[in-house]
Amino acid sequence: MAKLHFRPYIPNQTVLFPQRIDENIASNDPVRIVNTVVDTLHLEGFNKLYKETGRCPYHPKMMLKVIIYAYMNNIYSCRKIEKLLLRDIHYIWLAGNEHPDFITINRFRNRVKEEINNVFTQLVLVLADKGFISLEVEYIDGTKIESKANKYTFVWRKSVEKHRTKLLDKIRILLEQVDEAIAQENSVKDTPAQFTPAMLSDIVDELKEVLEHQPATKDKEQKKALREKKKQLKELEGYRDKLMEYDNHLDTLGERNSYSKTDPDATFMRMKEDAMKNGQTKPGYNLQIGTEKQFLIDFRLFPNPTDTLTLIPFFHSFQHRYNRLPAVGVADSGYGSEENYRFMQENGIEAFVKYNFFHKEQRPRYTPNPFHAESLHYNTEEDYYVCPMGQRMNRIGTRRDKTASGYITESARYKAQNCEGCPLRGSCFKAQGNRIIEVNHRLNQYKRQAREKLLSEEGIKHRGRRCIEPEAVFGQMKYNMAYRRFRHKGEDKVTMDFAFFAIAFNIKKMCAKLLKAGKGGTARIICILIRTIMTQYTRNIAAYYQISEKRVA
Fold first, then answer.
1. How confident is the model at residue 384, as a pLDDT?
2. Environment class of residue 242 by beta-carbon count within 10 Å: exposed (0-12), middle (13-18) or buried (19+)?
3. How far apart are CA 429 and CA 434, in angstroms?
4. SS3 per residue for 11-63
5. Are strands 350-353 and 328-331 parallel, antiparallel or unpaired?
6. Distances in Å between the alpha carbon of 124 and those of 9, 83, 322, 503, 511?
7. Distance of alpha carbon 460 from alpha carbon 465, whole angstroms
8. CA triplet 215, 218, 219: central angle to 5 degrees?
9. Which letter does DSSP use for residue 490 in this model?
10. Would you give the end-to-end CA distance of the chain in angstroms?
11. Other CB atoms within 10 A of residue 489 CB
12. 105-135 pLDDT, tens per residue?
């Protein structure tokens, strides 16, 4: 029988000339592109985050490379990154055989939570400069991402206001029972709703002073009265602390209706991922993103669960990043409001934004309600409507409403002359008296313009792309990259974390496009191409930061 021969196996063998670490890394590995891109980024703003004295910190470029590459591979835990820096050859090569621990990695992320947004902006400008995107079209959509906070840490505005009102009544009743020496009874009856913790503290101090100056006595009735006053004092102190707690809740709420005790920036919202199917609210953020060719070009977090009020601030975010607005804005019906249409028209943004019931109007079997206000005949010259029975409806006034953002909408009101005995009354309306309709002419005009654009050839193209732009990004983010829940508390840290994710997402998308365009070619050529791109772009990015610094100054 022949003897078996195995390849030499000496795990502790000493090598005279150590090999390079990256010799075992494939030439078409995305880690090389990450290394090249970060090496040529403009990171001078990071220098101000470090002190000139003390122990030398890890190089920010090395830390950026490691964290971005980890995010590209669905690794968001600092402890896992620390382990990979000891085990994975890709991370060992990126880190230059450095081994920062998980605390150092986390501190670095928190330290650069403001500058990381500039890095994201730089990367997007690089993509635009070399033709990956144009920054002329922005496809906008939003999704709700759950916060790290527990779902049972809620504080509701209505509950706080209700209990605060009851507490003020208790305070008023208690102060009426307090000794007359405090001299607060009359003011309590006049202004019972203006109590503040500071006012109650003054009353408590006065009551303590009165009790301290009372002479000692052996009379049972006087001792009983003294005990009652001390009890009232203790009760008043408890009311003061509770009132201070309610006021702090209201200050934290601001204009919101809820927040989480462990993450005050998070608002309770209904999430799409509802395992129990009971509509339970959870603390989270409304993440708004702008995409083009499935690249992330902008993002921002909002506390309000609806998308209507986020569009204008989101455009301002785009303008702050790139010193201009997009030429075309594409969004779904959640953004179709009069305020948003007007903003886009006044700022020269071509709006391909749907409105409510747009899809319903496009159905083949759709027939408009003949009794609806929009179906009635309108005489623009004399400003009146004609009901289905031919009766004239004259204008009787204007109704003004203010939205949550402070925008005022105007609706014209029209009233019929005589609806008594009309055979169509049961189908027309069911209220008593003559029918009154309210019409927002400006909004109807914006809807007509939006309908024309959406049904045009360009509008059909944008409508088709909108479904595969932000929706595809959300799908890749939540399912392919497992980014379904934030891992930090506080809006600033959550924004920082998503900025790292957005950078990693764009680089990963760029790697895929370059490798696809190369058709299997080596990444070494691609890295040379990227280095050339970034070198040519250095002057442009420096000029951009000079403009930004002048704008801030």
1. 93
2. middle
3. 9
4. CCCCCCCCCCHHHHCCCCCHHHHHHHHHHCCCCHHHHHHCCCCCCCCCCHHHH
5. parallel
6. 49, 31, 10, 9, 14
7. 9
8. 100
9. S
10. 86
11. 18
12. 999 999 999 999 999 999 999 999 888 999 9
Inter-residue contact 45 to 115 (CB < 8 Å): yes
- DSSP classification of residue 469: T
pTM of the model: 0.88
What pLDDT shows up at residue 278?
78
Domain ranges of the chain: 25-112+522-552, 155-260, 373-440
Bigger pLDDT: 245 or 222? 245
Q: With contact defined as beta carbons under 8 Å apart, do 385 and 377 qualify?
A: yes
Maximum distance among all alpha carbons in the chain?
116
22 or 493, greater pLDDT: 493
What DSSP string runs through 198-228?
HHHHHHHHHHHHHHHTSPP---HHHHHHHHH
Task: Report the pLDDT value the prediction gives residue 530, as an integer from 0 to 100.
Answer: 60
For the four alpha carbons of 24, 29, 30 and 35, in that order, the dihedral sign comes to positive
Helix or strand or coil: residue 355?
Answer: coil
User: What is the Cβ-side half-sphere exposure of residue 394, based on CA atoms within 13 angstroms?
Assistant: 3
Cα–Cα distance, 522 to 520 (Å, whole number): 7
According to the model, what pLDDT value does residue 539 have? 53
| Residue reference for tokens 């309590």 | 188
Local structure of residue 477 (DSSP, 8 states)? I
The average pLDDT across 453-481 equals: 94
Which is higher by pLDDT, 525 or 140? 140
pLDDT digits (tens, 9 = 90+) for 172-216: 888 887 755 455 434 444 444 578 888 888 888 888 777 777 776
DSSP state of 413: E
| Mean of all residue pLDDT scores within the chain | 87
CB 524 within 8 A of CB 35: no
Dist CA 414 CA 385 (whole Å): 7
The proportion of the chain whose per-residue pLDDT surpasses 90, expressed as a percent, equals 59
Strand (E) or helix (H) holding 186: helix 185-190
Tokens of 78: 């600092």
Looking at the predicted structure, is the pLDDT value of residue 471 above 90? yes
Structural contact between residues 439 and 373, judged by C-beta atoms closer than 8 angstroms: yes
Tokens of 14: 């000493």
Q: Can you tell me the distance from the alpha carbon of 510 to that of 129, in angstroms, rounded to the nearest whole number?
A: 13
By C-alpha distance, which of 308, 390, 372 is closest to 341?
Answer: 308
Tokens 């090389």, located at residue:
32
Q: What distance in Å separates the CA atoms of residue 499 and residue 112, rounded to the nearest whole number?
A: 10
- How do beta strands 281-292 and 267-270 pair? antiparallel
Q: How far apart are CA 153 and CA 294, in angstroms?
A: 36
CB atoms within 10 A of CB 18: 7
Label residue 483 exposed, middle or buried (CB < 10 Å: 0-12, 13-18, 19+).
buried
Alpha-carbon torsion, ordered 416, 422, 425, 431, to 10 deg: 60
Burial (CB count <10 Å: 0-12, 13-18, 19+), residue 291: buried
Q: 3-class SS at 527?
A: helix
Q: Judge whether residue 329 has pLDDT over 60.
A: yes
